Amino acid sequence: MINGYRSLPPDERSQQYEDSLRIAAESMRYCVVEATKLFEAVKEHMEGGSGVTEFCQQLIATEGILGAPSVSPDD
């Protein structure tokens, strides 16, 4: 989990990670998730939402940045 801009309101934040982190996560096959996305998933669960299973599946299936657009090797 990362939160590179924890001192700024979420709507004022730019990209929270360097491209080198994305590349490392993709090549080493691990998932990086922004703290705001994790917070929203926990909040939804605590409010009785049913999306926690889907969120967990996304965490397990993601190689790279969760929710980021896919980047082809030619980019």
State the separation between the terminal residues, measured CA to CA.
25 Å
Computed over alpha carbons, the radius of gyration is 13 Å
Principal-axis shape equals flat
What class do helices, strands and sheet pairing give?
mainly alpha
Sheet with most strands: 2 strands, parallel
Low-confidence stretches: none
**What is the percent of helical residues?**
40-55%
How many β-strand stretches?
2
Mean pLDDT score: 83
**Widest sheet: strand ordering:** 1-2
Portion in beta strands: 5-15%
Number of helices: 3
* Helix-strand sequence: HEHHE
List keywords for this structure.
single chain; 75 residues; mainly alpha; two-stranded parallel ribbon; 3 helices; 2 strands; flat
